[in-house]
Design brief:
With 323 residues, the protein is an all-beta fold. The chain has a single domain, classed as YVTN repeat-like/Quinoprotein amine dehydrogenase (Methylamine Dehydrogenase, Chain H, 7 Propeller), CATH 2.130.10.10. The chain is built from no helices and 31 strands.
Amino acid sequence: MVAYTVDATSGALTPVPAGSSLTGAKPRVVAVDPSGLYAYVANFDGGTISTYAVNATTGVLTGSGTGTVLAGTNPVSIAIEPTGKFAYVANAGSGNISIYSITAGALAPIAGSPVTTTIGPVAVNIDPAGKFVYVVSQGVGVSAYAIATATGALTPVAGSPFTAGNGPYAMAIHPTGNYAYVANPGSNDISSFAVNTTTGALASLGATTPAGNGPFSIAIDPTGKFAYAVNVNGHNLSAYSINASSGALTALAVSPVVATGISPRSVSVDPSGRYVYVANYGDSANPTSVSAFAIDGTTGALTALPGAPIAAGNRPTSVVTSR
């Protein structure tokens, strides 16, 4: 895993000295807790979660990096609820969700973990209020669960699972918690939902929105005005505006599609809402990299930052930013 500092003025990335850290076997995704003091990596082949402390000044990671906590088979996604008390891990191979309490950054399985979910969970998300967990499963859709505030335990939401497009793979929840969006690489589109903030149920907003070839990851800026989806087979990014009243997505009038590196796997908007970063997996003929863009706060259009893309580690599959 490689760490970078973000220039607050330009958005430029600079590798952190001694910022590379060992992980377990085949790291798949990284998540940072709300305090920004701890980072967690799901190791796909190792079936483990590596835990690190984050130096808030330098960004340097410290920790064993050897997979200190067991997960299920093939963990692929991690979500941490907004208070930082619980973490949820989707295990694609074993078809379940591992649940952990968090104490001073350390993970400990809760009673009743793991929880069986639909076959092949590939993404787990939590609403901004920390009331509901949403699990995306390819070929099934989105399963929803209510979170027990005291224990972190999950209870299925009535009507779950909710149907998305073909081969759903990633999900983003609007900062208001009122809307949710699912990227469907099998049908090259995005499903949009209204979220019942009382029950957690999802209701389709109607027809799906076209994306590029293989939408693989989706992110929403902190203001809730714009959404960005990377297309793994198109080697580009689709950009949308979000209607504040209806939640509907509309392709941007200016630069609705922006080139990235080869095989983009993950997209992240920084906490300031000014920059977008994309992890490019690359291929045998093209290097791995991180693309970086500035966001026009009025239109949502992206402009590549000078010097980007920059070199990354071997086959990056996840990018995340924190304060």
